[in-house]
């Protein structure tokens, strides 16, 4: 089959997600058959389970227990760390407080990030530096802080190994994106609770979206509800013990000129009386790196790069801070309105300029 024909050939139908073992990818810089498989899976579906990550099941269980404990606190204890009170997009958001594709998400969550000092605002300091800053910690659950900070470190190390494997798979120097992910880091972590919904109501746990960073490393409990969009429709991503679910973010799509695609995914709410919990780690470019570099893929891969996807409702910016702030403004309108009035106004103007058909498409995310 010619290169063009193979580039246009639809990916084979999948009825289950593939599993990648990080140990098989090794720590060396040598391209192995395991890397070829990673490149193919990443390009064809972009969602897979990751095993062999080396994180002790105990550490995972402890964090999952801590997440459940937090969401069981009384409302006032959760609101003590409300996201709306800081400009760093960190802290607690209640059910319906986050918007995806113009609709409220039926989940509550705490957003954390790398624990770093705030960059003081000033006339010469770009607004997106507001994304960096200290986390908010619940006084009602003081032990949460150590678990979260440990998870940020542990997962960052796994994400760095995985990114290196991706680069080798794409026949790049293993260090090609070192600069992009150098400290001070800009990775984010979300612990999430999806309360059950009675049938007949919205079941938008989180609406269809792409993740904004490079790679997402997700842990989910036994309930299920995560789905990824494929050419054949929505594919369930059922739970798998001690495995991460990995997906590709917009910044890796840009860096590979669309050879790798950020995947659209969503979560359907569990049924009434059931709760689902998940923990999503977003491995992201460092803000001080400014621009996402375009990797020079070898011709046989470059010829299959589809270019970054163009979505008028979600324009992609190669400028890291601009892209990251855009994503947060869209999702957390209360924080945006209070701390980023200019970006909030721009977002509102963009929404007002949509014609009804575009608005309907945005809400349904039908494409
Ligand atoms: O909870 C999940 O399984 C997925 C969450 C997600 O996609 C997100 O927060 O970006
Ligand atoms: Fe996501």
Written overview of the protein:
The chain is α+β, with helices and mostly antiparallel strands and 367 residues long. It has one domain (22-364): Jelly Rolls (Sandwich), CATH 2.60.120. Helix content is 32%, strand content 19%. It is built from 12 helices and 14 strands. The strands form 3 sheets. An 8-stranded mixed beta sheet has the order 1-2-12-9-14-7-6-3. Strands 8-13-10-11 form a 4-stranded antiparallel beta sheet, with no helix packed on it. Strands 4-5 form a two-stranded antiparallel ribbon. Strand 10 (226-230) and strand 11 (233-236) form a beta hairpin. The radius of gyration is 20 Å and the shape is globular. 2-oxoglutaric acid binds next to strand 7, strand 9, strand 13 and strand 14. Its EC number is 1.13.12.19, 1.14.20.7. Keywords: Ethylene biosynthesis, Iron, Metal-binding, Oxidoreductase. One of its GO terms (biological process) is ethylene biosynthetic process. InterPro entries: DIOX_N (IPR026992), IPNS-like_FE2OG_OXY (IPR044861), IPNS-like_sf (IPR027443), Iron_ascorbate_oxido_reductase (IPR050231), Oxoglu/Fe-dep_dioxygenase_dom (IPR005123). It catalyses: L-arginine + 2-oxoglutarate + O2 = guanidine + L-glutamate 5-semialdehyde + succinate + CO2; 2-oxoglutarate + O2 + 2 H(+) = ethene + 3 CO2 + H2O.
CA(first)-CA(last) distance: 28 Å
What does the main sheet amount to?
A: 8 strands, mixed
Weakly predicted, low-confidence segments: 1-9
Hey, roughly how much beta strand do the residues contain?
Answer: 15-25%
List each distinct ligand once.
2-oxoglutaric acid, fe (ii) ion
- Global structural class: alpha+beta
CATH class: Mainly Beta
Total number of strands = 14
Q: Would you identify the CATH H-level superfamily?
A: B-lactam Antibiotic, Isopenicillin N Synthase, Chain
CATH fold name = Jelly Rolls
User: Helix count?
Assistant: 12
Give the % helix.
Answer: 25-40%
Looking across the biggest beta sheet, what order are the strands in? 1-2-12-9-14-7-6-3
Rough shape? Answer: globular
CATH-scheme architecture: Sandwich
The ordered string of helix (H) and strand (E) elements is HEHHEHHEEEEHEEEEEEHEEHHHHH
* Domain unit count: 1
Rg estimate, integer Å? 20 Å
GO molecular function: 2-oxoglutarate oxygenase/decarboxylase (ethylene-forming) activity; metal ion binding
Enzyme class: oxidoreductase
Domain Fe2OG dioxygenase: 185-285
Cofactor: Fe(2+)
């Amino acid at each position: 089959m010619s290169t063009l024909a193979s580039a246009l050939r639809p990916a084979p139908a999948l009825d289950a997600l593939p599993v990648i073992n990080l140990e098989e990818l090794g720590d060396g810089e040598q391209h192995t058959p395991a890397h070829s498989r990673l490149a193919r899976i990443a390009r064809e579906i972009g969602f897979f389970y990751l095993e062999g990550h080396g994180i002790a099941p105990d550490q995972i269980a402890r964090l999952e227990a801590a997440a459940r404990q937090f969401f069981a606190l009384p409302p006032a204890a959760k609101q003590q760390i409300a996201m709306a009170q800081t400009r760093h997009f960190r802290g607690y958001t209640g059910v319906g407080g986050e918007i995806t594709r113009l609709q409220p998400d039926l989940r509550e969550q705490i957003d954390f990030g790398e624990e770093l000092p705030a960059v003081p605002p000033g006339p010469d300091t770009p607004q997106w530096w507001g994304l960096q800053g200290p986390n908010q910690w619940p006084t009602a659950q003081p032990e949460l802080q150590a678990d979260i900070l440990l998870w940020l470190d542990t997962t960052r190390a796994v994400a760095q190994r995985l990114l290196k494997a991706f680069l080798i798979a794409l026949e790049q120097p293993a260090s090609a994106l070192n600069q992009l992910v150098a400290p001070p880091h800009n990775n984010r972590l979300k612990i999430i609770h999806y309360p059950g919904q009675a049938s007949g109501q919205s079941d938008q746990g989180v609406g269809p979206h792409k993740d904004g960073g490079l790679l997402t490393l997700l842990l989910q409990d036994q309930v299920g509800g995560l789905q990824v969009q494929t050419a054949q429709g929505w594919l369930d991503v059922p739970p798998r013990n001690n495995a991460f679910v990995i997906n590709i973010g917009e910044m890796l799509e840009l860096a590979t000129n669309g050879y790798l695609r950020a995947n659209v995914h969503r979560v359907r709410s569990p049924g009434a009386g059931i709760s689902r919990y998940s923990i999503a780690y977003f491995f992201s470019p460092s803000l001080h790196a400014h621009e996402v570099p375009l990797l020079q893929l070898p011709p046989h891969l470059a010829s299959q790069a589809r270019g970054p996807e163009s979505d008028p409702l979600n324009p992609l910016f190669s400028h890291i801070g601009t892209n990251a702030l855009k994503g947060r403004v869209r999702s957390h309108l209360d924080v945006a309105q209070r701390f980023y009035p200019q970006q909030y106004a721009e977002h509102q103007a963009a929404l007002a300029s949509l014609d009804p058909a575009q608005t309907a498409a945005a809400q349904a995310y039908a494409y």
